[in-house]
Write a structure and sequence with these properties.
Layout lengths: L2 H22 L1 H4 L10 H29 L6 H26 L2 H27 L4 H8 L2 H27 L4 E8 L2 E8 L2 E6 L2 E5 L3 H13 L6 E5 L6 H5 L6 E6 L2 H7 L8 H5 L3 E5 L2 H8 L6 E6 L7 H4 L4 H10 E12 L7 H17 L2 E5 L3 E7 L9 H10 L9 H7 L2 H11 L12 H12 L3 H12 L4 H19 L5 H28 L6 H20 L6 H31 L4 H35 L4 H53 L5
Parallel strand pairs: 5-6, 5-8, 6-7, 8-9
Antiparallel strand pairs: 1-2, 2-3, 3-4, 9-11, 10-11
Helix pairs in contact: 1-3, 1-5, 1-7, 3-26, 4-23, 4-25, 5-7, 12-14, 14-15, 15-19, 19-20, 19-26, 21-26, 22-24, 22-25, 22-26, 23-25, 24-25, 24-26, 25-26
Length: 694
C-alpha cells in the first residue's frame, strides 16, 4: 500500500524547512551567544535533536518503501534505488545547487519535489489497482498536488524572505550587516559601537580596531629580524596585521588567504587606515590554502625572511594541519637560515590548567623538533617565535627598541613597557616551565594536537568527559593488545552462545561502522594532503554512494536462495574490508611522499575518489546479501529490511562518532585503520565458524 510511504514524503516536505529554522536558532535556544563554542555533550544533544525528526522520517521511509514494493522488488533492490537517488542528489548539489542557490531555495525545491512524488506514488499505485472511482476519488488522491505547485510558485520570494528572517533570528542581539555564503562556508559581519566583527561558520575570526593584538602579532616577530625584506603572512588580513607589517622596511609581502569572499567583504567594512594595506603595491594576495602555498614555494628562491602564521589554535582538523611537524618542516624550507617564524597558541598568562599545558607543550615540542631556536612570549595568547639557526632570536629589549627607533614605527597601544614586560626573564622562565612539559609530537597522520585541544575544550564543560579522554590517551600504548584480547574473548563467546542468525546483523553493523570510519579517514587524509575539504564533502559522499550503488547492483544479481554461498560472499566482503583498511595507511604515506603537480592532481582526482568508491562498494554489497540471508532464516521481507537497515545505521553512527572524536585524534590514522581491519576480520571469522544447520 502506498499510503504510509506517501504520507512520509509529505512529512519530509514539511519538516525540511523547519530543520533550517531550528538549526539556525540552536544557539539562541541553547542560550549561547554567536561565536560561543558549545561543550561536547551539548553539541551532541542539540545535533541529535536537530537531525532526529528528518532522519527518523527517512529511515521509516525506507521500510515503508520495502513494504510497498513487497512481492515486486527485494529490499536489496530498494536499497539500490535509494543509492542511485543519493548519487544524483550528490552530483546535483556539488555542481549546481550549492553554487547557484541559497539554502532556502534548495530546501523549498526539495519539499516541492517530495510533495509531487507523494502525489505521483499514490496516484500511480491507485491507478494500477483500479481503485480510483469517479471525480471525487481522484480529487482525494490529488490533494498533495496543489501544495507542490504552490511551493514551486512561492520558492523564490519565500526563500528570500525566509533567508533574511532566519539570519536575523540567528544573530539576534547583534546588528548583522552582511551574510555571504561561499564554497568555504558562511561569512557574517556584525556591527557594534563602530566596530565590525567577522565570523566564519559561526566562529569569530577578528574584530576591527583591535590595535594591541595586531601590533603585538606583527612587531614582536618583525623586530626579531634585523632586516625583514620578504614576508609571508598566512591568514589574519582582516585583523590589522598587514597594516602593522608594512610599517617595517619590507619589500614584499605575500598574503595568503583561503576565501576571496572574506577579502571582498572586508574591504567594505575595514577601518579607513586598514584598507590601503590591502591595495599596497608591496602586497601580493594569494587565494589559496596556506599549507599548499608553502609546499609550492619550498623549491623557490629567494626565500622569506619572516613567516607569520595567523590562524586559530588547532581546534579542527583543518587548522591542526598547520601545526604539524610536516607543515613546520615545509615552513623551514621556505625560510632563510636567519629567518624568523611566528605562530600563536591559546595559553594563560598566570595559571594554565594541566590540559592547556599539554596543548602548549605539544605545539612547543613540535616546533622545537624542526627549528634550532625557539622563544615563547607568554600571555593569554602566547607567541611562539622560531628560527632555523641559533643566535638569531633575542630577548634583549634594548636591541629590539633600537630597531624600533631605526624604523620609525608608530603604534597606537604597544609601548616599550610592553616589550620589557613580555620579555622579562621571569616571564620567559615561566614560559619554559609551562611549555616544556611532556607531550607527543603533532603529526599529519597522528594529529595528537586535536586530542589535546579536545581534552582542553571538554574540561571546560564536563569534568567526567575530560577524565574519560585522559584515560583514552593512557591506553594508547596498549590499545592494540587490549583490542586483540577483546576480539579473542568476544569471538569465543559469540561463536559459542550467539544464535547463527545474529551473525548476519553483527557483520552488517561492523561493515556499516567501517564504511563511516573509512569516509572520515579519507576526508581527513584528503584534507591533510590537498587542502580545504569543505566544498569537497558532497563529492566525497557522492563517490561513496557511487560505490554503494555499484556494490548493491552486484549483490542484487546473485541468487537469493543460495544461502551458503551468500554467507561466504558476506564473509569474503568483510575479509576484503579488513585488507582494504590495512592498505589505507601505506597508500596515504606514499601519496604524502610524492611530488606535487600532476602527481597531486592524480591523487586528488583519481586515487581518493577511487578509494572512496571501493569503500562504498564494500558497504553496498553487504546489505542485499544480508537481507537475503535474514529473509531466508524465516524473517519477513519488510521486517528484515527494517531491522538490517537500523543495524547498518547504528553501526555507521558509532563508527563515525568513534573515528572522528576519539580514534583519529588519539591513535592516528594507522592504528584507526588497524582497528577497523581487526573488527572486520573478526566478523568474517564469526560468519565462517558458525554452524548454520543447512
Amino acid at each position: 500500500k502506498p499510503g504510509p510511504f506517501s504520507a512520509l514524503q509529505v512529512a519530509v516536505a514539511l519538516v525540511l524547512p523547519l530543520e533550517i529554522l531550528f538549526v539556525r536558532n540552536i544557539r539562541s535556544l541553547a542560550g549561547a551567544l554567536p561565536g560561543e563554542v558549545f561543550g561536547f555533550f551539548p553539541m551532541l544533544i542539540w545535533s541529535f535533536v536537530a537531525l532526529a525528526p528528518l532522519c527518523i522520517l527517512l529511515g521509516w521511509s525506507f521500510t515503508a518503501a520495502c513494504q510497498m514494493a513487497a512481492g515486486r522488488l527485494s529490499a536489496g533492490k530498494v536499497y539500490l534505488y535509494e543509492s542511485v537517488g543519493s548519487v544524483a542528489g550528490g552530483l546535483l548539489s556539488s555542481f549546481v545547487l550549492l553554487y547557484r542557490f541559497d539554502p532556502w531555495q534548495i530546501v523549498l525545491g526539495l519539499s516541492a519535489l517530495n510533495l509531487a512524488s507523494a502525489w505521483r506514488v499514490r496516484k500511480g499505485a491507485k491507478g494500477r489497482e483500479g481503485e480510483i472511482r469517479g471525480s471525487r476519488g481522484r480529487l482525494v488522491h490529488l490533494w498533495p498536488l496543489p501544495f507542490a505547485l504552490a511551493a514551486v510558485l512561492l520558492i523564490l520570494p519565500a526563500a528570500a524572505f525566509l533567508q533574511d528572517l532566519s539570519l536575523r533570528q540567528r544573530w539576534r542581539g547583534y546588528e548583522l550587516v552582511e551574510s555571504r555564503d561561499s564554497i568555504y562556508g558562511n561569512l557574517a559581519v556584525t556591527a557594534r559601537g563602530g566596530q565590525y566583527s567577522f565570523f566564519e561558520n559561526g566562529l569569530l575570526l577578528s574584530t576591527t580596531e583591535d590595535f594591541l593584538a595586531a601590533e603585538e602579532g606583527a612587531h614582536y616577530v618583525l623586530l626579531e629580524h634585523p632586516q625583514p625584506r620578504r614576508v609571508l603572512l598566512i591568514g589574519g588580513g582582516t585583523s590589522g596585521l598587514l597594516r602593522e607589517i608594512l610599517k617595517h622596511p619590507v619589500e614584499s609581502v605575500d598574503y595568503v588567504e583561503l576565501d576571496p569572499t572574506l577579502i571582498e567583504t572586508a574591504q567594505r567594512f575595514l577601518p579607513t587606515a586598514d584598507r590601503p594595506a590591502l591595495r599596497d603595491r608591496r602586497v601580493a594576495m594569494h587565494f589559496l590554502d596556506g599549507r599548499l602555498y608553502v609546499q609550492g614555494q619550498a623549491t623557490q628562491k629567494p626565500r622569506y625572511d619572516v613567516v607569520l602564521l595567523a590562524v586559530p589554535h588547532p581546534f579542527t582538523a583543518q587548522v591542526n594541519r598547520l601545526y604539524t611537524l610536516e607543515f613546520l618542516q615545509a615552513v623551514r624550507r621556505v625560510l632563510q637560515d636567519d629567518g624568523v617564524f611566528s605562530m600563536g597558541i591559546i595559553s594563560a598568562e598566570n595559571y594554565p590548567s594541566q590540559e592547556m599545558q599539554r596543548l602548549d607543550a605539544c605545539v612547543y615540542r613540535t616546533v622545537k623538533e624542526v627549528f634550532a631556536e625557539v622563544l615563547v612570549l607568554p600571555d593569554d595568547y602566547a607567541l611562539v617565535l622560531a628560527s632555523p639557526r641559533s643566535g638569531v632570536l633575542t630577548a634583549e629589549t634594548s636591541t629590539l627598541m633600537e630597531r624600533w627607533q631605526e624604523r620609525h614605527i608608530e603604534t597606537a597601544l604597544l609601548t616599550p613597557s610592553h616589550l620589557s614586560l613580555r620579555l622579562s626573564p621571569e616571564r620567559l622562565e615561566y614560559a619554559r616551565r609551562t611549555f616544556g612539559g611532556p607531550a607527543l609530537l603533532n603529526r599529519d597522520f597522528e594529529p595528537i594536537g586535536l586530542y589535546y585541544d579536545l581534552v582542553l575544550w571538554s574540561g571546560q564543560y564536563s569534568a567526567g568527559l575530560r577524565d574519560i579522554l585522559r584515560g583514552a590517551l593512557a591506553c594508547r600504548s596498549v590499545w592494540l593488545l587490549v583490542l586483540l584480547a577483546l576480539a579473542t574473548v568476544s569471538l569465543a563467546l559469540v561463536t559459542g552462545i550467539t544464535p547463527p542468525r545474529a551473525a548476519v546483523p553483527l557483520g552488517l553493523a561492523v561493515l556499516g561502522g567501517a564504511g563511516m570510519a573509512w569516509e572520515v579517514v579519507l576526508v581527513f587524509a584528503f584534507q591533510v594532503l590537498h587542502g580545504y575539504v569543505y566544498h569537497q564533502i558532497a563529492l566525497v559522499v557522492t563517490a561513496f554512494m557511487v560505490g554503494l550503488t555499484a556494490g548493491s547492483w552486484w549483490a542484487t544479481r546473485v541468487r537469493a536462495e543460495e544461502a551458503r554461498a551468500n554467507r561466504r560472499r558476506l564473509a569474503l566482503i568483510l575479509g576484503v574490508a579488513a585488507a582494504y583498511s590495512l592498505l589505507l595507511p601505506p597508500t596515504f604515506s606514499l601519496l604524502a611522499a610524492g611530488p606535487a603537480g600532476s602527481y597531486g592532481f592524480l591523487s586528488a582526482q583519481v586515487v581518493f575518489p577511487g578509494l572512496t568508491i571501493i569503500a562504498g562498494g564494500l558497504v553496498g554489497a553487504a546489505f542485499p546479501l544480508a537481507s537475503a540471508l535474514y529473509v531466508g532464516q524465516g524473517t519477513g521481507a519488510s521486517r528484515a529490511a527494517g531491522i538490517l537497515y537500523a543495524v547498518d545505521l547504528v553501526g555507521a553512527s558509532v563508527g563515525a562518532l568513534a573515528t572522528g572524536a576519539l580514534l583519529i585524534p588519539v591513535l592516528g590514522l594507522a592504528q584507526t585503520a588497524l582497528t577497523v581491519a581487526l573488527l572486520s576480520g573478526f566478523s568474517s571469522v564469526v560468519l565462517l565458524t558458525r554452524k548454520w544447520g543447512d
